[in-house]
Design a protein that fits this description.
By secondary structure, the protein is mostly beta strands. The chain contains one helix and 15 strands, in the order E-E-E-E-E-E-E-E-E-E-E-E-E-E-E-H. It has a five-stranded antiparallel beta sheet, with helices on one face. It has a five-stranded antiparallel beta sheet with strand order 2-6-5-4-3, with no helix packed on it. Strands 7, 8, 9, 10 and 11 form a five-stranded antiparallel beta sheet that branches. Strand 9 and strand 10 form a beta hairpin.
Length: about 250
Amino acid sequence: MSKIRSESFAFTLANITLYLLYMAVSYSFADASNGSYHTVKTLAIINHRTNPDYHATAYELKENDNDLFETSSLPAKICFYKNSKIRRGICFKAKDGANLPYQEVKDFKIIAISNNKDSHGVLFTALHHGQTLGRVMFISIWHFDSTLHKFIDILPNVRLTYQSEYKISRNIDGKSIFITADRIWDENTESLYSPHRFKICILTLDDNNFFSITKSYTTENKYKSFDDVERIVVIEKEMETIRRILLN
């Protein structure tokens, strides 16, 4: 019997899903309703370790004729509030170390990171629109640290191209395993959206509730990309190899 139980995603996370995306911690106390932002979604975070319970809200650019994702430098952001009626919170902007803005919220959900009833996180992902064909998506998972009394990102810097997929699975101990598949582009022999090999990364949760990359490899097979399919499907086809690697 396999030691992992898979709950599949392809740019969407299943289970009690969490708000993912690493943010180059633009940490600020701010009223996120100001400026050109609009609210994408608000989540209630019910956790016995947070007193009172928190709400998390995702914001992105309010597009109009003059303000578009493709031309804006306004990053998406996530804000945590102790009271949903008081719009004053702690916010984190979706930017990387090179100040690249990730303008559009892609995924924002509550996810379970272990079997413990209080071990939930917020998955927050955002997409970059602009002049790069490179890493266009940031992924983060925010978890309440009962020692620091604040929400922290428990993923390392996770950046993927648009030709990518991620998935959450469970180990036999009930802790989450986070898996990513990202295209490797051979510019000399492949067009941008032709079939590619993919880099698989397996991130496991340690005893301190932080994810880290413990295994990675390049697929032997090439998998179809957007010249042929509407969404990337790699991890499901690689699960036999992934299970074998995890058991070794």
